[in-house]
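Notebook B, p. 112. Complex prediction, attempt 2.
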Amino acid sequence: MTLVLSIEEQREILDMKSVLDALEILYREQAVGRAVTRPRSDIIAPNQTGVYGLKTMDGVVPAFDVGAVRINSDVITWPKVGASKRRVKVPAAPGNRWVGLVLLFSVSNGEPLAIFPDGYVQRMRVGATSGLGAKFLARKDSKVLGLIGSGWQAGAQLLAACEVREIEKVVVYSPTRENLLNFVEDMANQVGVEVMAADSAEAVAAEADLVLCATNSIQPVFDGTLIRSGQHLGCIKNCELDVNAFKRIDRIVVHSQDTGPKHLVMEAAESHGGDRGWDESHGDIDWNGVPTLAQLVAGEAEGRQSSTEVTCFANNLGLGIQFAAVGAKLLQIAREKGAGHELPTEWFTQTVHP
Amino acid sequence: MTLVLSIEEQREILDMKSVLDALEILYREQAVGRAVTRPRSDIIAPNQTGVYGLKTMDGVVPAFDVGAVRINSDVITWPKVGASKRRVKVPAAPGNRWVGLVLLFSVSNGEPLAIFPDGYVQRMRVGATSGLGAKFLARKDSKVLGLIGSGWQAGAQLLAACEVREIEKVVVYSPTRENLLNFVEDMANQVGVEVMAADSAEAVAAEADLVLCATNSIQPVFDGTLIRSGQHLGCIKNCELDVNAFKRIDRIVVHSQDTGPKHLVMEAAESHGGDRGWDESHGDIDWNGVPTLAQLVAGEAEGRQSSTEVTCFANNLGLGIQFAAVGAKLLQIAREKGAGHELPTEWFTQTVHP
């Protein structure tokens, strides 16, 4: 049977620790060449309201007996919110919903194992990847987490950081005060540590041992001159850190050496081409030769060498193998708990040669 | 609602003429840059029985309001059948079934429109692509179709050729006599023309105006010295035609200038690497600058210039946009006829940001 799992069902059964565990195994597999990932590609085409994006990435991890395909079918706009320009996906599908899917297949016999919306796993994998960066790069005695951003992704950053370090206090800044206060209240209820709103990125930087950016801004939200000795930095998009930050960092580790997704843009959508800039905003940085998270986790690349080093985990691009690893974990737990609902595998298989 | 359509339901409602029509519109769109396709990629990894392959391709065609992702999840072996080596996909999924899927999404609002097994559309798109090659390259007075191969794909070649030319007789050769005779009987019942078994590829070549190869051989099945003046040739894999054939051809048009899919091979599966050779078997031919089917259909590339030219349509690689175009047509007809069964779109969409 092919399992369908709603976001609510996923949220109920898959916690941050499970995701961190699955990804740590994954990176050890990747480091020895036992995982293969096909870099993300984006087809960008015009539609009536602006731009349509069809994004896909694939990965196979035999150790988990899973191959995964992640698909996003997005209606995209670029509004300006306050001073910063954002890239916003519109929930344009019926019922004001977003469209992203993960499909899991068996490496042993090819069968479709599961199909489910991607949003929860995406959030958890972004958080956990950042968390593993912090686990292997941040000072062991880090106590204060600084967060820039108070949206959907910021929460997962907080959960992951609290799993990998004994965080005692979280200081958060985001420009829309109402969102910030709601986030602080919500997260304080979820984790057993103090969560406080800050008035500025400066205030966050002044206090934090780790500074993690998790926004949908396509312009810098963190000024490198604020960095203090010994801090660890993270971001979900490289453009969140400004060029000064990259200059100040002593040790950087990337998720992938790919500089960005492969874009295939229809000419009629080219007018929006400049707005894709967030992917290439630090295009002048050559990631070749920069250690990867897989190398770091496997002990093939050095972690922090002193308490004063400024470290950074960047280029947190999604990889198909992450959806294979986290998807396999989700599937395992769902089967144990009887979660989700099953569809006949015959709907998704065939008696004719493909 | 998201439509699920079985192979049987697809076969009932989608005929070759509809597929030819949809693809001809597609190529005109592609020729003017109004269709974007992401070249096929294959992840190849080891499994317990040999090799697992996860193959994907994507395409967006705004004119049809459809984006498509095609996924194949294959267990692959390379047995030797008679004198020739073949690449065989094992129906290893529960119930001895193959696994290939097409997912269709709306360009307007992103919603998942349909999900269905790919085998029937795959067969029809290979046949119709070859058929369009013949429509624009074969002699208008072509009466005799020669076929090399008697499997699943060969039937679609026959159907397509009979749609684009007034074929009066079909001559077929394949090495396993029983398969050949079954095919001849079966196809004679489907089309209103004489279908005959031949004893050899030589016998086919001696009589045919068009020679179409449609086998799963990864070695040549047609010897170029057999070619007669004015013939049109086609193949579903370039390696079916030998090097002599490519030397003898006066005018060649390709489906895509890509020399082959992008393979990402896990080292432990490298022992099978040489067997992927069918993709690169004519790797010494440079397709750059060779006209594409899109250019030919749109009148941007010249077709046949005389009754004596030897023409060829080659490199019939699958393109994501074909699954978008044929999928859109299938969906349109299915809606008109109320075919398939609908699943709640909410299963495949989400209220959280992906």
